[in-house]
């Protein structure tokens, strides 16, 4: 398996017992030409919008909504919801409860929503929004919390400012950020990007450029450019190239076939390779690009133990294992469902 250099710093933490309702790794398969392991279900059936990030060489943190049943007249995606974490200390093979990022206080509480995460100086930083049930974008308040132990515990809440000339200058519903060579921190936003030059104390939103609020972001191979794919309802994939040097510049849109039914997972594996997970017809696929997202190849289905899938995200460990966390399509509570995990390597994907 390919060994990768872990660049963002390791996070300390003490593992907790596995969830009582979680499954231990099942149907692990070492196949000719690579590795694929179906870890199986890791949570109960009330989670949505998972984001997974490497916080150490073998440590992974998954941040997700935990939704409550909704009352009549409440939008299922805008009802009461906590934001919680799950943690793995062994490269995604086993998972335990992590920390609570936001507590709504029950089914009559507020909606914790749209958490995006990034590593800043070896510390896990989460930016998310909180608003009333049936919120509109103008109702949402941006919150920030920081963890020194990979999401097991969190700092007190702070409220960073966001400068934006539109209502969608907010974190989007799931995704990871990165740091440019200049030190500028970039996060995916609703139809836009958010960036900070003061280590997350304040943020600026770019103009809107995406067609939907569901974006992801990763650095381009060279320069101060972000690659930003977004969910497209016409099943045709689009990816914007956004210059974020001293000033904002939109560098155009690539249109090609990576259309997804729901939000997608997106990650730079190394200087040459991008990975993307997408759901089509309730099945989850992973694919790669070696030309900066212009074309995608080697697609394989990875739904595995879940009969169907919706939202997903990708992380990579220091030894090159690709870990995909996703939400099954077996919606139980308020448009939420169990979380599942699979592990694979690049040899399996390309064989």
From TrEMBL:
The record's Gene Ontology biological-process terms are: ganglioside catabolic process; oligosaccharide catabolic process
**Positions in coiled-coil regions:** none
EC no.? 3.2.1.18
* Record GO terms (molecular function): exo-alpha-sialidase activity
Broad EC category: hydrolase
A single Gene Ontology CC term: membrane
Catalysed reaction(s) here are:
Hydrolysis of alpha-(2->3)-, alpha-(2->6)-, alpha-(2->8)- glycosidic linkages of terminal sialic acid residues in oligosaccharides, glycoproteins, glycolipids, colominic acid and synthetic substrates
- Lineage, top-rank taxon, reads Bacteria
Which residues does the UniProt record annotate as the domain Sialidase? 78-322
The UniProt family comment states: Belongs to the glycosyl hydrolase 33 family.
Q: Which PANTHER family match?
A: EXO-ALPHA-SIALIDASE (PTHR10628:SF30), SIALIDASE (PTHR10628)
Q: What is this protein called?
A: exo-alpha-sialidase
Q: Which organism is it from?
A: Jiangella asiatica
């Amino acid at each position: 398996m390919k060994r990768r250099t872990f660049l963002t710093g390791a996070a300390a933490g003490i593992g907790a017992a596995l969830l009582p309702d979680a499954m231990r790794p099942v149907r692990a398969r070492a196949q000719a030409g690579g590795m694929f392991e179906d870890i199986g279900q890791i949570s109960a059936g009330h989670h949505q919008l998972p984001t997974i990030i490497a916080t150490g060489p073998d440590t992974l943190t998954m941040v997700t909504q935990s939704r409550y049943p909704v009352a009549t007249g409440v939008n299922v995606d805008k009802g009461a919801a906590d934001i919680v974490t799950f943690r793995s200390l062994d490269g995604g093979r086993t998972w335990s409860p992590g920390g609570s990022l936001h507590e709504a206080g029950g089914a009559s509480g507020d909606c914790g929503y749209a958490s995006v995460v990034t590593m800043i100086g070896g510390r896990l930083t989460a930016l998310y929004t909180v608003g009333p049930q049936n919120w509109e974008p103008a109702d949402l308040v941006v919150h920030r919390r920081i963890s020194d132990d990979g999401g097991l515990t969190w700092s007190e809440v702070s409220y960073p400012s966001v400068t934006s000339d539109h209502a969608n200058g907010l974190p989007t519903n799931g995704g990871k950020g990165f740091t440019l060579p200049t030190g500028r921190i970039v996060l995916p936003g609703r139809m836009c990007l958010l960036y900070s030059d003061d280590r997350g104390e304040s943020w600026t939103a770019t103009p809107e450029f995406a067609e939907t609020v569901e974006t992801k972001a990763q650095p381009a191979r060279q320069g101060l450019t972000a690659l930003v794919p977004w969910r497209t309802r016409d099943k045709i994939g689009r990816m914007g190239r956004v210059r974020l040097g001293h000033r904002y510049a939109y560098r155009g849109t690539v249109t090609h076939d990576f259309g997804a039914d729901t939000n997608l997972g997106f990650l730079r594996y190394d200087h040459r390779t991008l990975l993307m997970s997408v759901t089509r017809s309730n099945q989850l696929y992973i694919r790669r690009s070696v030309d900066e997202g212009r074309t995608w190849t080697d697609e394989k289905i990875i739904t595995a133990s879940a009969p169907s899938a919706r939202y997903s995200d990708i992380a990579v460990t220091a030894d090159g294992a690709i870990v995909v966390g996703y939400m099954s399509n077996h919606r139980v509570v308020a448009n939420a469902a169990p979380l599942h995990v699979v592990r694979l390597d690049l040899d399996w994907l390309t064989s």
